[in-house]
Design a protein that fits this description.
By secondary structure, the protein is of the alpha+beta class. The chain is built from 10 helices and 5 strands; from the N terminus they run ααααβββαααββααα.
């Protein structure tokens, strides 16, 4: 895995990779994509500036957010894993199985330094709590598009993911994009898919 090349990628490149995965991507007018992407990045940074403490667990306790852990069977042929998730109105769940499976290989990645992966996952999901509580841009923004004779309105969920990554990077003062975790956590359990994600990102850049 070429971590050095991935660390050179810009935050905008990682955000573009997330936006490309959204099923509504082709419905977004081309001239609006870059603007929406940067609005989501800025939204995440602004939300991070409102969090008073770096101790995210203390903040979650203050906001009465429950943090749960779950396990699932790790299957080599699957890549549809949930690293962590936010459940309305105030519950964050973190996948212990993936963390345990990835723990041995994570030690070889210097870019993590002393940063706990679990804290990055927690920060990401905490953004989803905040965006719902405050009805931020990533919740309010709707895309209007035509399907045959029908006009439809829908959220672009990738914008929430982009903002959540930006939030985690800002609040934890990371010098790398948290999107990298999508790759390194999947590498021990779904190496081929992890490699596919790398190739997609390097093509964008």
């Amino acid at each position: 895995m070429d971590i050095a090349a991935l660390l050179e990628l810009s935050d905008a490149t990682y955000a573009q990779g997330l936006l490309l995965q959204d099923h509504l991507y082709r419905k977004i007018p081309e001239e609006q994509r870059s603007t929406l992407l940067y609005q989501a990045i800025d939204c995440g940074k602004a939300a991070a500036a409102q969090v008073p403490a770096k101790d995210l667990r203390a903040y979650c306790e203050q906001e009465k957010i429950t943090i749960d852990y779950f396990e699932e069977e790790i299957k080599a042929e699957s890549f549809r894993y949930v690293f962590a998730e936010f459940q309305l109105p105030d519950r964050i769940r973190i996948n212990q199985s993936l963390l345990k499976a990835a723990a041995p290989s994570l030690k070889k990645y210097d870019f993590l330094k002393d940063q706990q992966v679990e804290d990055i996952l927690l920060a990401h999901e905490l953004y989803h709590f905040i965006e719902n509580q405050q009805q931020l841009f990533t919740i309010q923004k709707n895309l209007s598009y035509q399907t045959g004779p029908f006009k439809r309105h829908a959220r672009v969920h990738a914008l929430s993911e982009i903002a959540a990554m930006s939030f985690a990077q800002s609040v934890l003062e990371l010098d790398f994009s948290p999107v990298l975790l999508n790759i390194v956590l999947l590498d021990p359990v779904a190496p081929e898919y992890s490699e596919t994600l790398i190739k997609r990102l390097l093509v964008i850049d």
